[in-house]
Amino acid sequence: MDFQELVKYRRSSRYLYTQKPIPDAHLRKIFEAARYAPTPHNSQPFEIIVVKDKDVIKQLSEVGFRLDKKAVDGHFYWTRFSDEELENKRTGVQVDVLPKFILDLKENPSLVDDDVFWDRAMKLYSYFVQNCSCLLFVLYDKSLRGVGPLHHVWGILSIGAVMQNIWLAANDLGISAELISGQLMVPESVQQILQILDIPKDKYRLMLIFRLGYEKKFGTWGTNIRRELKDFVHLDRFSNPF
Ligand SMILES: Cc1cc2nc3c(=O)[nH]c(=O)nc-3n(C[C@H](O)[C@H](O)[C@H](O)COP(=O)(O)O)c2cc1C
After folding, report:
1. What's the pLDDT at 30?
2. Which of the residues 9, 17, 100, 121 could staple to 213 if both were Cys, CB 3.0 to 4.6 A apart?
3. Which ligand 1 atom lies nearest to the CA of residue 167?
4. What gap in Å lies between CA 19 and CA 57, rounded to an integer?
C-alpha cells in the first residue's frame, strides 16, 4: 500500500477477531518493522513477546482491569456521544466503537462500584481477547535508557516508534490490531502479567499490549476524524497557522 494511504488506513480494530493463526512469515515482517524503529543512539531499548499459546492467552485475558471513578471520568472526557460532537471537537473516540460498558457507566454512574457489573465487563473483555490470533507485549528495557536528565523519556518515545511500525506493518498485511491498555493502569495487573510471562520486573517496564488477528467483519473500522492541519501546524511562529 502507498505510504500515505497506509497511514490513513491504519486503525484500532475493536471488533471480534477469528482465532485464525497469523503465518510466522507475516509475524516476522511485523517484527522486522519494529526492528527498524528509530531509537536514541540506536539503543533499541525494547523486547517483544508474542503469545500464541491459547492457554497463556486465556490466562492473560483473565487479568482484571476494573476502573475507578477517576479513570471512568477520564474516559468520558475523551468519549464522544454523537457524530456531531466528534465532528465539532475533532478529537476523541466515538462511543459506538468502545465497549458497551462505557455507555452503561454513563447512563448509570453508580455501576462503577458494582462487582457484578465489572464481572460481566471482564467476561466480555476476556472473550474478545481470547478470540485473537496472538497477543504482543512490548517491553521497555530500563537499563538501555537515553542520555541526560530526560533518560526514560527518550526510551519511551522509542516505544512509540516501535508501536507505530508494528501497527502499520500489521494493517498493511491485512492483520487487525488493537492496543489494550486497561491492565497497564492497574499496578497489580501489570505484576500478574509480568509473572505469567516470566518477565524480569526490575529490568523491564511493560509498555504496550496488542491484540492481533483477523476481524470477523473486515473493514468495519472505527471513525477516522482528525484535527485539520491549520489547527496544529504553525509556520515560523506559534501564532501563525501553516
Ligand atoms: C498509547 C495508546 C494507548 C491506547 N489504548 C487503547 C486501549 O486500551 N483500547 C483501545 O481500544 N484503544 C486504545 N488506543 C487506540 C486509540 O484510542 C486510537 O488510536 C485513537 O482513538 C485513534 O483511532 P485509530 O487508531 O482507529 O486511528 C490507544 C492508543 C495509544 C496510542
Report:
1. 98
2. 17
3. 25
4. 11
